[in-house]
Automatic annotation (TrEMBL), chains A, B:
Residues 1-23, 254-287 are annotated as: Disordered. Gene3D superfamilies: Jelly Rolls, Winged helix-like DNA-binding domain superfamily/Winged helix DNA-binding domain. Residues 174-247 form the HTH crp-type domain. One of its GO terms (molecular function) is DNA-binding transcription factor activity. This is CRP/FNR family transcriptional regulator. Pfam families: cNMP_binding, HTH_Crp_2. Residues 7-23, 254-280 have a biased composition (Low complexity). Residues 62-110 form the Cyclic nucleotide-binding domain.
Length: 287, 287
DNA sequence: CGTTAGCTTGAGTCAATTCAACAGCTGTGG
DNA sequence: CCACAGCTGTTGAATTGACTCAAGCTAACG
């Protein structure tokens, strides 16, 4: 169904490639993480005055294509991605998937299930994954004892909300090119954050999934990537993307969206193109 | 700047019309609500074993056009809408507004500020409003004592997240007509939930704001409403909307989105139109 | 009573989609 | 081992939904 993990072995393919997980230890033949490791993963500054290894959280592994949770399934646990790549999707009345996010290391899954006590989305592994289980009841109970944990929860949920707001803003206001450009930039940022190269990486998802995520068709995504390639903003070879001009990608926009304050009609065409002030094709030592 | 409150006096105009607030009492010349009332507003079943009036939350009033909070402003309090209508917006680098939501009675504001400790959106009153202040620190402290309160917080944040996910799905997958149709239906539902007529109501926002919210131009919104009016799905008179065929609005969709599983190419055109199985214009006793 | 903001409607345009053909790669099975 | 089936990705051509531009109308306000 999904591509094999062959691509994992390719150059510059980050994550999920090594069975040596950064966080986690063996116990009873399984991997467990303590609170400190969980907080580190979430980028939450945790000033813990507690015995770290007192409470441990279990890991679970999922293979490519496996579902972590499905829509309507009773909610009882949150997940944190320790390694690997996933997608979360909504499924409409015709069975069409709408991709909501591409969770990776440090992201939390399952928050949408808290309210109705049932997951409202589906999470699918795009590569082999290692997730940390956070039983929700246990978590809230702990939150009452460890204030930092509670703050972590609020912080993560709020962060997720802000992320989705930005997504709504993007879908509502940006052109196809701008969406694809920002998608690439945000992916690059994520990779950088995880310690991988932000200049050369492999996409974990199909054009179809990217299109669904960005509210575009796969053809438009493909064409846009090709166009960026021709302009020299990126290099494309199947799922291997090289970022050549991150600045241009970041600032790429729609032609001034309608009733903008800019009175000059002449500035339009100019603003539509990438502000390639510097020579377009500037090779960057990748990997 | 914004329309006057004249429209409030019109027929079937809900909320903000009466100074008699359902929740709240006078104390020191101001309105306050207890925890029970707050929970009721949020539709959170609160089985409280506590002295209700022990902890009170202060109300604040905002006039039409006033800002509740602005982008970048330090975060310290959440708000619950007790009455009135608002919009929350993102503002891009050119000053263009992107509407994110239209909060009304029972909705919570400010959650996006928790993560970065600064509000990431701006909330503007579209009518005179009465909001309940929830100082965040106080709230989390209380949450540790009253478990229900903590659950309320998680529940509300999760609910908000699910709502935004649905929004993303809508923006990513639906046609202009379908978006407008669902917008009307969701408004009607909200009004019904608040005890107002779901068959006849006044929009609180301009076409421009609706367009921004739905990722469309104001012209498209206007045209679509006119079209629905002609088909007999609704009646339109400026901001007064009458819902005539809620079912048709609910099921109105885009022509099967591309690679859908449906093999039959013949079914396309049919599905594009509203499934008006029943005679199209079916008058409903309104108000 | 003129001004302004909001709404409607028309005409033309264009960005993104739909439809279609083809190429590359993988896994399968004869 | 090679042919074949399926998925993925690319590219072209034609179509169209939504946008832009523009004009005019209404209601509210100073």
């Amino acid at each position: 169904m999904l591509p094999t993990q062959m691509s994992e072995a390719r150059a510059a393919a980050p994550a999920a490639q090594s069975p040596a997980l950064e966080a986690g230890r063996q116990r009873q033949g399984r991997l467990w993480s303590n609170l400190k490791e969980v907080c580190d993963l979430l980028h939450i500054p945790a000033a813990f005055s507690m015995n770290a290894d007192e409470l441990l959280f279990q890991h679970v592994q999922f293979k490519t294509g496996q579902r972590v949770h499905t829509i309507g399934q009773p909610f009882d646990t949150l997940y944190i991605v320790n390694s690997g790549f996933l997608k979360t999707v909504l499924i409409d009345e015709f069975g069409n998937e709408q991709v909501l996010s591409f969770p990776m290391k440090g992201d939390m899954l399952g928050v949408d299930g808290i309210h109705s006590r049932h997951y409202s989305s589906e999470a699918v592994a795009l590569s082999d994954c290692d997730l940390i289980l956070l039983p929700f009841k246990k978590l809230t109970a702990l939150g009452r004892v460890h204030v930092e944990l509670e703050h972590m929860m609020y912080g993560v949920m709020s962060r997720e909300l802000v992320r989705e707001q930005a997504m709504i803003g993007m879908l509502g206001a940006l052109s196809a090119e701008a969406r694809v450009a920002r998608f690439l930039v945000s992916l690059a940022d994520r990779f950088a954050q995880m310690g991988y190269s932000s200049k050369l990486f492999n996409l974990r998802m199909t054009r179809h999934e990217i299109g669904s995520y960005l509210g575009l068709t796969l053809e438009t995504v493909s064409r846009t990537l090709s166009a960026f390639n021709e302009i020299g903003l990126i290099t494309v070879d199947q799922r291997t993307i090289g970022i050549k001009d991150a600045e241009a990608l970041k600032t790429l926009r729609r032609l001034p969206p309608s009733r903008s304050r800019s009175k000059s009609p002449a500035s339009r065409k100019a603003a539509a193109e990438a502000p390639a002030a510097a020579p377009p094709v500037q090779l960057v030592a990748a990997v």
